[in-house]
């Protein structure tokens, strides 16, 4: 797996290098960073250490040779190819040698102090090189696709996606998580959470903020919330935004772009895409259907 490090310190030596950023975004400060790039060079050597965990997916292209070492031991000697994954835990020094590089990749950087389900196990996973996992690949590609459409996904959605990636990465390494205990949120706890979401539905709500309202660790809250509502928190929040959008489309003449802004969507196109996915119809068509004369 090849990449140009975005975070951390180290030495980089390249010949005839070209790197072009495609997509880049961060959430919760820089606790979560997603970076998509194209990288091409004849030869490169990278030696670096980063304060974040790193998961890299080669989206396309490859190398004629990739050689990876860590702690004086050879971890991999072969070629990069589309669809392979690499994981580097925070604080681990990694040395990579690459030849005939021409590829595109997506890199997900995760602060090890971030309290999300499954992420605590990432500390115990060693460096993994050129593994394959269709689930993680699909999740990272979906994030890249969403951003390529001009949408900046909400924090709560990205947190949920990263938690799934972390849980899956633990499985990929053989570091299984213990079975989760079941349980629903108490009535008063759920009412506090619901009131918080109602009051902040137009904001970029984070999973950690909602869990704090419930007075629970993030992983426990996310599990119990889904047991209570049948949906993960991010899906519940999106559905609530769309429900409010229906009311505004029906009862007001507010422009669709203004509704999108008022309900916290990153753009009108993001609002339209989400509304159509959940309701099977665009906001404009919905308004025309309920008020044909408008």
Summarize the structure in words:
The structure is a single chain. With 294 residues, the protein is α+β, with helices and mostly antiparallel strands. Among the domains are: 9-139, Jelly Rolls, CATH 2.60.120; 240-294, Orthogonal Bundle (Arc Repressor Mutant, subunit A). The protein has helices at residues 134-148, 155-172, 187-200, 207-214, 218-229, 233-251, 256-262, 268-279, 283-290; strands at 9-15, 18-27, 32-49, 53-62, 65-70, 73-78, 84-88, 94-110, 128-132. Strands 1, 2, 3, 4, 5, 6, 7, 8 and 9 form a nine-stranded antiparallel beta sheet that branches. 33% of the residues are buried.
Tags for this model:
alpha+beta; 29% strand; 9-stranded antiparallel beta sheet; Arc Repressor Mutant, subunit A; 294 residues; Jelly Rolls; Putative transcriptional regulator, AraC family protein; transcription regulation; AraC_XylS_family_regulators; 9 strands; single chain
